[in-house]
Amino acid sequence: MAILLRAVGKNPVSIFWAVIVSGFGNPLGLTEAITRMTPIFLCALAVAIPTRAGLYNIGGEGQLHCGAIAATALVLYAPWLPHVMMIPFIIIAAMVGGALWGMIPGLLRARFQVNEILVSLMLNYVAIFFVEHLVHGPWKDPNAFGWPYSAPFPEWAVLPTFGKSNIHLGILLGFVAVGIVYFIWQYTTWGRSIRLIEANPRTARYAHINAAKYIVVLMAVGGAMAALAGLGEVSVVQNRLRPGISPGYGYTGFLVAWLARNNPIVIIPVAFFVGGLYSGADALQLTAGLPSSTVDIFVGLAFLTFLVGESFWRTKRTFAEEAR
Fold it and tell me: What is the pLDDT of residue 172?
């Protein structure tokens, strides 16, 4: 990254310092970091939960979009709901939409041994293009001056936020989910069964554990987590369904989960750090006059640095253990 910045005539040290200060060094940056952290955190949970049974959910991006679609559908087609009931209902609708989308690769894996990685990845594109179809077609707001937007969410369909920020209820739901998941894994029969499926599927089969059921349920729960991210984007951040509601939060969530070793508790600080990087990197456009694509390059190289560093450290430790 330093080489690239030097090549365009920028001082890497001052740029890196600007990213850190802008992302973590002031209240506005911290607020934006938490706002950016929320969908990444939820999408990382969508990856981490199925991983406990040895499954890889790459479909967080599509499940995010399905949650956004389901929430928007409820707002558009059920305006007669009492205002006080709208928030609980759009949360349920979004989670059901994401869960159903997540169940598809789960069912195919459980029933036909179809690779869930490929299925969930392909379904991302289906969901994204379906959003494009809706906002260019049946859900296009005639008052949006030709823009492919749905009608805006009414005030009573916007998730509660903290003050005037965009930090919304979704992050609290994510924290609650972390607590529930931790309790289930540590203290229930479900948790023990899931750990056995991951450790040794053959033994789990001999123990009469219905692995197919757990596969479908875990993929559905993962989808529901990612769907909450989509709900937050259309309800609070964008206030309507539109193309590009996610700059790749689903994929970033996968990397965050990987960095956190799929530990839901560790995911929280990692997602916050990445959210801060995104927040600080946005400042590059204002302070350094760099194009918006620089943000993606910066964050991508940051991930690459982490991955290479972690791999180098692990290799070094292996050699040290073999030398003893």
Answer: 94
- Those residues whose C-beta lies under 8 Å from the C-beta of residue 189, and which sit 6 or more positions away, are none
Decide: residue 9, CB within 10 A, 0-12 exposed, 13-18 middle, 19+ buried. Answer: exposed
The confidence score (pLDDT) of residue 204 equals 82
For position 53, what pLDDT does the model report?
86
Sheet strands (E) in the chain: none
| Cα angle value 247/45/183 (rounded, 5°) | 165
* Spacing of C-alpha 32 from chain mean position: 16
SS3 content of the chain, % helix, strand, coil (to 5): 75, 0, 25
Q: What is each CA distance from 183 to 13, 86, 188, 268, in whole angstroms?
A: 44, 30, 7, 17
Q: DSSP characters for 31-66?
A: HHHHHHHHHHHHHHHHHHHHHTTT-----HHHHHHH
Amino acid at site 142: P
* CA–CA separation, 168 and 201 (whole Å): 39
pLDDT at 141: 92
Backbone angles phi, psi at 126, to 5 degrees: -60, -45
Predicted model pTM = 0.89
pLDDT score for 293 = 67
* Rounded Cα gap, residues 96 and 101, in angstroms: 9
pLDDT at 77: 95
Ranges of the chain whose pLDDT falls below 50: none
* CA angle centred on 127, ends 121 and 132, rounded to 5°: 135
